[in-house]
Task: structure prediction
Amino acid sequence: MKRILKGVATAGILALALTGITAGSSSAASKKLIVVGFAQTGSESGWRAANTLSMKAAFSKANGFKLIFNAADNKPEAQIAAVHSFINQRVNAIVIAAVVETGWDNVLKEAKAAKIPVFLEDRTISSAPSLYATWLGDNFLKEGTTAGLWAKQMVGTTPTNMVVIEGTTGSAPAIDRATGFNAAIKGSPIVTLDSQTGNFTRAGGKTVMEGFLQKYPKKIQLLFAQNDDMGLGALDAIKAAGLIPGKDIKIVTIDGTHDGLTALSQGEFNYVVECNPLLGAGVASLVKAVLAGKSVPKANTALDGAFDQAQATAALPTRKY
Ligand code: AHR
Result:
């Protein structure tokens, strides 16, 4: 399933890309702007808000771009319609943060026929790599693995009932984080009671957790929420049920947003794996390189860390998102 992460993925290349377009120049403004259509997933999470800001800052006029921004409210068909519209507008490049992995072939073939390069940002897709120029994002499989290894180590030999709140069904992070997590907990005494989607939103996390708490009263000891926002929503449900998050139910999440690290610092989460949303400068650099005829790696992976309570407390004062 992981097609392009098997390709070249070097932090060094990303670091170069990230430094390539940080400052605008007055000469850029006098040149013809590069018109870029960006098909964003929507605005489901704090991570997504930070990612949108990062993209808008990098694809600025000062940096030589005109950005046409579309947020698809996490509807795959709306996102494909946005890409069609970018093709009809004859943009110079298209950037996609794909809601789901599948369904992209036809529109990508149209973009290719129109000679408009497509760049994948954040999320991977299942189409052939020949249909897009490159991808830049985080290693979701590794994030899931890191979360799972923490859970396995944390429970030790104690039998533990877990529930999972998944991200958007069919999205690369939901698929890959589950794969990584499940492989990492193999051989541990963790039993998955249930796993349902909360669509990467706080409201979704709260609703799903309420359902779990009703269905499995006093049975849940561990929650894996595939992003911070769903974990934060779950906190409300856990507290409303008279339980103490972080103690009665241990919680591991992914993203590392300011709100997520605050919950960890306060002991309501127990571990947070980072997923860096600040991808804009790197993507803008890749767009410029490809339009200038330079060859770029097919896959570019951001570097992510992970946080326990002390590390979250130390990181919070300078956290950028
Ligand atoms: O694709 C990255 C994921 O999408 C983030 O983990 C989540 O918060 C976001 O909505």
User: Anything to note?
Assistant: Residues 1-26 have pLDDT under 50 and may be disordered.
